[in-house]
Amino acid sequence: MADRPENPEKDTQWRAAGDRIQTLLDSCAASGAAAYERAQQLVREVVGLYGAGLERIVRAGDAGLAERLAADDLVASLLLVHGLHPHDVHRRVSDALDRVRPYLGSHGGDVDLLEIVAGEGPGENTVRLAFRGSCKSCPSSAVTLELAVQDAVRAAAPEVTSIEVVTAPTEKVTGVIPAESLMAHVKSNGHAAGWHAVPEVGDLAPGEVAGFLVSGTPLLVCRVGDLPLAYRDHCPVCDDSLAGALLRDALLGCPRCGTQFDAVHAGAGPGGAHLEPLPLLLRDGVPSVALDEPMGARA
């Protein structure tokens, strides 16, 4: 597991800074067009000032300084804003997919980067991906995989304007499916996915199962080897909590009805029953889980 930030709470605060700045700009619009334009100009001046300083730091450093700085997600985002990132979009998207592959593998799937197509406008790029594996037969799993990949790609390459998922070349059915349509029922009813840091997950030992309450949602997290996996705390067979579940040979057993679920394959159970998996990934070195939440609920 990667090293954690010294202050995860502060790091999470800075991750949301862009949203807070946009909220403040939007509030300025209530005072009229002139006030809104002044606020935008102020942000541009501040960003430009700090960008010029960051560029001087990078240029004055040794040949590997930009590479080392880019290893930090927060600093990497600033390097991207000012065109100072050492890696091109293809390298960054490839690295992002490599980071989520262990999670995809835990659901019996994988993803291939087919191509990145430059758009007509400056800085516009379309990423085309192909998903592979048994995970596609489980709608719940497919959505969580789409969410994990989409989040990773957009964080690493904000200049990507669209993500298209095509069928794997070896399959008979062909077609292009916009990522937005695959995510439609995640975003339906005014809900979207938000990430929540759960640093305690890092303390779980292999084979251990623990319950967590995250943003009012009860979760069950287990660790299979080095891989932590998260599910909603609900058994689809007996319609009860999984609290007290045990993990044996990658099978998660409901303590009430005794049903065994395959923890490393999207929580698949007998007769088509399956647990509801949730994306659990490292973000800035901190284990974080993605949950649906009402639009506008995020700070």
TrEMBL record:
InterPro entries on file: FSCA_dom_sf, NIF_FeS_clus_asmbl_NifU_C, Rieske_2Fe-2S, Rieske_2Fe-2S_sf
GO terms of biological process kind: iron-sulfur cluster assembly
Gene3D superfamilies: Fe-S cluster assembly (FSCA), Rieske [2Fe-2S] iron-sulphur domain
PROSITE patterns: RIESKE
Domain Rieske: 196-289
Keywords recorded for this protein, A-Z: 2Fe-2S, Iron, Iron-sulfur, Metal-binding
Molecular function terms, GO-annotated: 2 iron, 2 sulfur cluster binding; iron ion binding; monooxygenase activity; oxidoreductase activity, acting on paired donors, with incorporation or reduction of molecular oxygen
Cross-referenced Pfam families: NifU
Function comment: May be involved in the formation or repair of [Fe-S] clusters present in iron-sulfur proteins.
Protein name as annotated: Fe-S cluster biogenesis protein NfuA
